[in-house]
Amino acid sequence: NPTPSDPGDPTMSPTFAPTVAPTTEPPTPAPAQVVLSGDPHIKLRNGTILQFWMPLARWLPLLEGPEYELLGKAFGRPGTSEQWFDGLAVRKKSALDNPNVEVTIPCAVPLDAAAGDSKDDAIHFVELVVDGARVTESGRVYQSDAGAVQVAASRYDLHKVTGVVENDMFIVKTPDFTFKLRTMTALKYDDAEERDDFLHLDFEFVAIPDASALSGFLAEVMTDAPLSDPSTFTLDEPMGVAAAAAWAEQALCSDHRLAAEPKTTSSKAY
User: Fold this and answer.
1) Tens-digit pLDDT profile for residues 109-153
2) Tell me, what DSSP letter sits at residue 75?
């Protein structure tokens, strides 16, 4: 079930420093970029919407570039097949023990308290970890890997839609891909408390310099290629209501961080 559309994206503040114009012809950009949101679903640039399911409470590789990979973690609603993202991370492939950026929604989010003051400069709903250290200030740009990875932290107002005054928003920039992510309540529910219970992360790609250099689940979806790992990511709802309910009971929420997981290769789930 896709997340209903919102009033529109705000202007990001702060923004990154201007980039010097390249002296060589840039690579061909991605022919179709994706928006990931809701429970979760993928919206391609051509308007196609595909819902997918993944194992819960595990860090799984979503996209791999020449230097960096993007991983995600999902949580579910017990007794249903519904699930959402509660964690996204960027990690350099040559340094698996040291994630560059982790954004996670803690299991116990003080939603009401965090929504009160729209003038403070704190990150409200997520834990943002850069190079292993948690950072808490919004309105700043954080850097990792000698500036190769940057995170611009800001907030946006969805009060008219959700009743929440301030939501967290981040733009994460790497040499392989740049994406925007933000916190979102589960708007498909009518009950306000129920919407807040399933606060999650939505994200979309802002730039992909060279789509041909990417691999993994999202790259396959973008190019309509066969899924290389259908046992992990599936576009088919899990095997009926009973099996879906058992799947979702694996975990409602998990707070474990990617940095605490054992490392093998970038193609494995953690």
Assistant:
1) 544 444 444 456 888 888 999 999 999 999 999 999 999 999 999
2) E
Closest CA to 101 of 68, 129, 74, 73: 129
Q: Tell me the pLDDT tens digit for each residue of 53-96.
A: 888 888 999 999 999 999 998 888 777 778 888 899 999 999 88
- Whose tokens are 């058992």? That residue is 246
- Residues 255 and 107 sit within 8 Å (Cβ to Cβ): yes
Residue type for position 174: T
Strand partners, 137: 122
Name 148's Cβ contacts closer than 8 Å, sequence gap at least 6. 67, 174, 175
Encoded tokens for 91: 């990690």
Instruction: With beta carbons less than 8 A apart as the criterion, state whether 263 and 94 touch.
Output: no
Q: Which of 89, 77, 50 shows the shortest CA–CA distance to 170?
A: 89
Q: Which residues of 217-256 are buried (b: 16+ CB within 10 A; e: fewer)?
A: bbbbbbeeeeeeeeeebbeeebeeeeebbebbeebebbee
- Give the least confident one: 56-60, 102-106, 254-258: 254-258
